[in-house]
Model the fold of this input.
Amino acid sequence: MSSDLVSRHCKPCEGGVTPLDDKQAQKLLEALHADWTLSNDGLEIQRTFHFPAYSRSLGFLNAVAWIATTEGHHPVITLSYGSCTVAYTTHAIDGLSDNDFICAAKIDQIPLGDS
Done:
């Protein structure tokens, strides 16, 4: 299913859409890298990526930013010396949408090298 998510594009969401329920979110989560986690309240997915140097963390952040800009769906990104945490939720619906999983799947395709 990951390849299915990667081939899709985000659709604008201005509200009026029902957030994914826990069962739907769990099914989509299975298509992502195992390091993605679902928050306890089921409103967010997140993954932390680890790198040996700040420059690698920053390069990864720029790749994530490119995906976010291209898809029109923007995560919360926390950057530190050896890591970058990416968290997705769809604010307009106060929960998760397909867009969150589409972007996460695209991030999973970023080559990490020997991080």
